[in-house]
């Protein structure tokens, strides 16, 4: 009880023989596995593409606006987002993306369910959702579970 085992382990026996394990399966199996892996990677790339659910035309317009707006100051981006009642938090590249998408697609409305929250839109899946809002009277954050695949957007206002 408590003594060491005297037998060798399987890994030490493999090391001592110096032989490699042979691959199981034929070359055709390996080729089909590689092809399946490549197809899965391509499918994943399409799902996580920056284009997402945008049409090719809209995506091209958004990319051109993003390149143009990259030189704009964050204060000007904040002002344009505030004018259109959009979310103004985030890094500059997120603000640029939000303004470009707004100019092309339109402004997101307030949440139709809670009537206080601001709608967030996912370019990847195309979903509109409301995370909720802060209730100043109660001093707490209120969660909203609104989610929709499509919404009518308002016209984007420029200064």
In sequence order, what are the helices and strands, one letter per element? HHHHHEEEEE
Report the sheet with the most strands, covering strand number, pairing sense and barrel closure. Answer: 3 strands, antiparallel
Mean pLDDT metric: 83
The beta-strand count equals 5
Gyration radius, in Å: 27 Å
Give a verbal description of the structure:
With 159 residues, the chain is mainly α. 42% of the residues lie in helices and 9% in strands. It has five helices and five strands. It has helices at 10-17, 27-47, 56-69, 74-83, 92-105; strands at 120-121, 128-129, 132-135, 140-143, 147-148. The strands form two sheets. Strands 1-2-5 form a three-stranded antiparallel β-sheet, with no helix packed on it. The model has no long low-confidence stretch (mean pLDDT 83).
List the helices and strands and how they pair.
Layout: H1 10-17, H2 27-47, H3 56-69, H4 74-83, H5 92-105, E1 120-121, E2 128-129, E3 132-135, E4 140-143, E5 147-148
Antiparallel strand pairs: 1-2, 2-5, 3-4
């Amino acid at each position: 009880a408590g003594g060491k085992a005297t037998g060798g382990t399987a890994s030490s026996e493999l090391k001592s023989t110096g032989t490699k394990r042979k691959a199981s399966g034929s070359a055709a199996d390996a080729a089909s596995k590689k092809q399946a892996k490549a197809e899965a990677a391509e499918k994943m790339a399409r799902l996580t593409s920056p284009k997402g659910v945008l049409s090719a035309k809209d995506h091209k317009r958004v990319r051109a606006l993003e390149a143009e707006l990259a030189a704009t100051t964050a204060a000007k981006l904040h002002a344009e987002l505030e004018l259109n009642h959009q979310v103004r938090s985030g890094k500059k590249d997120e603000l640029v993306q939000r303004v470009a998408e707004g100019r092309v697609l339109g402004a997101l409305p307030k949440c139709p369910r809670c009537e206080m929250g601001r709608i967030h839109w996912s370019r990847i899946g195309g979903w509109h959702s409301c995370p909720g809002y802060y209730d100043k009277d109660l001093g707490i954050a209120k969660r909203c579970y609104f989610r929709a695949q499509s919404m009518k957007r308002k016209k984007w206002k420029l200064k």
